[in-house]
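A quick word before the example. In earlier lectures we treated sequence and structure as two separate objects. From today on, think of them as two lines of the same record. Here is ATP synthase subunit c written that way.
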Amino acid sequence: MDILAEMNGSLSTVGYGLAAIGPGVGLGIVIGKTIEGTARQPEMANQLRGLMFIGIALIEALALIGIATPFFLK
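And the structure line, produced from the sequence above:
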């Protein structure tokens, strides 16, 4: 039983690491597609940039939820 108690402390750290993967991948996709769209249609750069910042804000909210969740589950 003592080994399981020690593992629980480190599992929350591993859980946050896994929770950070999703937003990291999401940011890469959003920024990459924005660059691709700007390269294809440079006249749409300002609109794409604005949409990109909205998408980044929503994705970062997921990361903040991942940080806060272990504190609420205790």
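Notice the following. The helical segments are 2-40, 45-72. We will return to this example when we discuss secondary structure assignment.
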